[in-house]
């Protein structure tokens, strides 16, 4: 078991590869030191719509990746609370705030229309260097 390499990053000679907090934690520490990227309670016994939630999460990630192109610096976190979907992440601080406000409104409106429930984006902006956790 200790020889498994899945989900781990190889150390470079000069330790020049930057890692974010999400990437720096090994897979076996998920749920102990790092949380899940999707939060929903539909996968419990007799939960409603477990497959639909997984497909919706995939759709949300693809939609945000296409709409926000290269602006997301971190993983996209999806949290479901009752009938509301909250999407969190860190975006690049490179455009005017007016463009971000437009993209936030556009994304919330379209996702609310497609998913038939209110969608709220909770974004923070940062520079590229701000999210580097360590170098390996």
TrEMBL record:
The lineage of its organism: Eukaryota, Metazoa, Ecdysozoa, Arthropoda, Hexapoda. Coiled coil: none annotated. GO terms for cellular component: mitochondrion; ribonucleoprotein complex; ribosome. Belongs to the universal ribosomal protein uS3 family. Keywords: Mitochondrion, Ribonucleoprotein, Ribosomal protein, Transit peptide. One of its GO terms (biological process) is translation. It is found in: Mitochondrion. This is 28S ribosomal protein S24, mitochondrial. InterPro entries: Ribosomal_uS3m. It holds the Pfam family MRP-S24. It comes from Ceratosolen solmsi marchali. It comes from the Eukaryota. Its main location: mitochondrion.
């Amino acid at each position: 078991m200790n020889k498994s390499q899945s989900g781990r990053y190889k150390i470079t000679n000069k330790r020049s590869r930057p890692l974010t907090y999400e990437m720096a934690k090994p897979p076996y520490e998920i749920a102990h030191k790092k949380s899940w990227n999707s939060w929903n309670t539909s996968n419990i016994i007799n939960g409603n719509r477990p497959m639909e939630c997984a497909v919706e999460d995939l759709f949300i990630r693809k939609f945000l990746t296409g709409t926000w192109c290269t602006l997301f610096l971190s993983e996209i976190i999806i949290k479901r609370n009752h009938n509301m979907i909250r999407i969190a992440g860190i975006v690049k601080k490179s455009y005017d705030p007016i463009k971000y406000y437009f993209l936030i409104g556009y994304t919330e409106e379209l996702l609310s229309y497609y998913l038939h429930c209110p969608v709220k984006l909770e974004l923070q902006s940062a520079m590229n260097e701000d999210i580097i956790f360590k170098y390996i």
